[in-house]
TrEMBL record:
It is found in: Membrane. It comes from the Bacteria. This is Transporter. The chain crosses the membrane at residues 12-31, 43-67, 94-122, 151-170, 177-198, 218-238, 259-282, 302-329, 350-369, 389-411, 427-451. GO terms for molecular function: symporter activity. It holds the Pfam family SNF. Its main location: membrane. Keywords: Membrane, Symport, Transmembrane, Transmembrane helix, Transport. It comes from OM182 bacterium MED-G24. It is a multi-pass membrane protein. One of its GO terms (cellular component) is membrane. Belongs to the sodium:neurotransmitter symporter (SNF) (TC 2.A.22) family. NCBIfam families: Na_transp.
């Protein structure tokens, strides 16, 4: 095992935790998880979700880190090297290729939505949405997304920011960013929880009941599948991010302990987001929705009607912006690491090349809401929806399932034992999970998603 990656190393275990948590914490935690939990059994859904984190997400996080720290390279080269050392076919490096491609596709879509978030920081701070009702907030959002120039401008700005951070490298770029952005994110999160407690009155209890009361009658098999899918996707699995970040992880850090901290932080953010959002929604007699409707219409109405709403609404969108940027830099890093290894080009040049490619791909998503709104690709979906479906419903689950199978069945057991540094019983339990339980669960989610 190499002690160092040529790309640099995290200065400490804490920096790895912050970077990996930053990758996992994103838009899905804030605008999807709370509503999905509330509508599908509340506390019962949360229990199933936590079980899925333990049996699917957590083991695959560990599997990616094991591979990354042993290989100390990009996922593509790590998969090829470990396959050779374990006397397996190097075709397994295709999993690394698929992961890098998945990250690219997701980044191209993600950058467009993140651009909206940054635009709403300015809108909230300027008071444009103060006193907005459902009609004016909805019209403001529709007007913004239908303005191709505005959407492209914010998409461009977000991609430039992502390229700048990645170009500076692991230590001076990614670590420096998460060192300040992640603590700021948690500070803003706790501040907004306090704001929700103080200003929403009885609605605070309603919001908690919506998310956490045990509604077992609403916990259908479809809800269980949702919980499994959410647990898998929320941890940035299947695109090589955790493998890449694991390559920069100090040799002495415990993989099970570190992976557990990442999973706990990610889940905590999702739950706290719900504690912030739904009391605000109920306090203003609004109806919760999922996706863009919740983020860009419902919440601006809620903040616009409440004392201090302009300040705390701005803080909320700053919080989401921080979550977006810490995720975006992780999406481009696997491809960046490979291209540096392959070509020997300097990192700044590689970051710009990849950023421009992702920006160009993102043009299709940005224009899906205006000039290309009638263009259809997969099954009648527009460009934005097609890229989202392809990455999240097909490529990510396949990547995660194959990584688990590769770690459990293909990699030499001595490598896994050395990296995990657990008892023989603990090692056998981990191997059983990544060989059987996690792949089977992901396969079920994958097939059921394709079948609708």
């Amino acid at each position: 095992m190499a002690d160092q990656s040529i790309h640099g190393m995290w200065s400490s275990r804490l920096m790895f935790v912050l970077a990996a948590a930053g990758s996992a914490v994103g838009l899905g935690n804030i605008w999807r998880f709370p509503y999905v939990a509330g509508e599908n059994g509340g506390g019962a859904f949360v229990l199933v979700y936590l079980g899925c984190i333990a049996l699917i997400g957590f083991p695959i996080v560990m599997a990616e880190i094991v591979l990354g720290r042993e290989g100390r390279k990009s996922p593509i080269n790590t998969m090829a090297d470990l396959a050779k050392r374990s006397r397996r076919s190097t075709i397994w490096q295709a999993v690394g290729w698929m992961g890098a491609g998945t990250g690219f596709i997701i980044l191209s879509v993600y950058s467009v939505i993140a651009g909206w978030v940054m635009a709403y920081v300015i809108r909230m701070a300027s008071g444009d949405l103060a006193g907005a009702d459902s009609g004016s907030a909805g019209a403001a959002f529709d007007g913004f997304t239908q303005d191709a120039g505005s959407v492209l401008g914010w998409h461009t700005l977000f991609m430039i920011l992502t390229m700048f951070i990645v170009a500076r490298g692991v230590g001076r770029g990614i670590e420096f960013a998460v060192k300040y952005l992640m603590p700021a994110l948690f500070f803003l999160l706790l501040m907004l929880v306090g704001y929700s407690v103080v200003t929403t009155g009885p609605a605070f209890g309603e919001g908690l009941a919506f998310m956490f009361s045990f509604k077992f009658d609403q916990l259908t098999w479809a809800a269980v599948l949702l919980a499994m899918g959410q647990a898998f996707f929320t941890l940035s699995l299947g695109m090589g991010t955790m493998m890449t970040y694991g390559a920069y992880m100090p040799a002495g850090a415990s993989i099970p302990g570190t992976a557990a901290m990442v999973a706990i932080l990610d889940t905590t953010v999702a739950i706290l987001a719900g504690i912030i959002i739904f009391p605000l929604v109920f306090a203003n007699d609004l109806t919760g929705s999922t996706g863009p409707g919740l983020m860009f219409v419902t919440l601006p109405i809620a903040f616009g009607q409440m004392t201090g709403g302009q300040v705390f609404g701005t803080a909320f969108f700053v919080l989401v912006s921080f979550a977006a940027i810490t995720s975006s830099i992780s999406m481009i890093e696997p491809a960046c690491a490979w291209l540096v290894e392959k070509t020997g080009f300097r990192r700044p040049m590689v970051a710009v090349i990849l950023g421009v490619i992702a920006w160009v791909l993102g043009l299709g998503s940005a224009l899906s809401f205006n000039l290309w709104s009638d263009v259809q690709l997969l099954g009648g979906l527009n460009f934005f929806e097609s890229m989202d479906y392809l990455a999240n419903n097909i490529m990510l689950p396949l990547g995660g399932m194959l990584i688990a199978l590769f770690t459990g069945w293909m990699v030499d057991k001595s490598i896994v034992r050395q990296q995990m540094a657990v008892s023989e019983g603990g090692l056998l339990f981990f191997l059983w999970i990544v060989r059987v339980v996690a792949p089977a669960a992901v396969f079920v989610v994958f097939v059921m998603t394709l079948l609708g």
